[in-house]
Model the fold of this input.
Amino acid sequence: MADSVVLMYSGGLDTSVLVGWLQDEGYEVHCLYVDLGQPCEDRDAIMQKALDIGAASAEIADLRDELCSDFAFPVLQWQAKYENIYLLGTSIARPLISKACLQRAREVGAVAVAHGATGKGNDQCRFQLAAEALDPNVKMIAPWRMESFRNKFPGRKEMLEYCEAKNIPVKATASKPYSSDENVLHISYEAGDLEDPAIDGIPVIDFGMTVSPQEAPDKEETVVIGFESGKPVSIDGKQLSACDIVTTLNEIGGRNGVGRIDIVENRFVGMKSRGVYEAPGMTCLYAAHLALEQLTLDRDLTHLRDRLSPEVAEMVYYGFWYCAKMDALMAFINECQQPVTGEVTLGLYKGNARVISRTSPNSLYDEAIASMESGGDYNQTDAEGFLRILGVPLRVQGGVRPRSY
Done:
């Protein structure tokens, strides 16, 4: 009996070819389509296509809500952005895909998991590092890292010829001048014409989530986002699931042109690459969450979180989701976020998301103390002694090492 393999399957050209190629290599293939909010497709037709090619099974795992609640929202609590800009929409999804495929592999008794990520990108790292952390004995098949596979399929032409010879149905549509990846969190665009960082990406890309800020309405739209312990729970007072919160904000933010970025980023494998992203819903959530933290977290805890946040972003980007360090950091952020409860009102207008108001039962803001007027539990005379103590080392140093001025 042939060994079996679980394939991370999308139904596109690359993974359709992999179904046939893995069979040629002697494997029984089980396809798993992980639904993370990709564009509306005929899921039944995609599954039937896998079976027609010869897959032993084809299953769909709907993990949209888990992606948002258990992966994206903890990263949101960290305010983690890779290189201060990228909201990690693709990076966050990869460890969940690996977990789902390992679960499927256990169900069917597969000896390996296969994916179609290239040997130049970040996804190969995320898939493999997550899988090995969950199952140290996992066998990962990555055809694009195999010279024999690349020799057989040096380009799209050879893949199409293989599909024709194997009677594998593929859409004969013209290739876009870029590559895109979509889930409920965002859409990423890279490669093709975007590989020239001097080219303006906006005319090149057919954006799927956002209108251009120039074409957005001329009137500001407001939205109220509710949080409990740092995680979004409601929109305009209505309790929603994690996925519904993101999709609702995608619609609201998208029609107001919110959430586009263009970045030349440093890939984990060492090269620089140019990416264009749109994440309207998550952009709104990041802005609202930060505003609520300003009310509810004390200074030292906030600054400690901010020092650790770039580290978390790197770990997510590189693929170190399942590790002891991340476990400890997630335990920290869970405790840190306990008071971050309340509501934030955003005003969305032509690509901008501004904070209109924020309220919280756990607010640390004391108007009497903060006021420029006298009053509250703050004696301005106390500042004299406070500053004299703080200035001790400066006065001593100034006496030993005079500075010119």
Q: What stands out?
A: The longest strand covers residues 28-35. The two ends are 84 Å apart (CA to CA). Residues 51 and 57 are 7 Å apart (CA to CA).
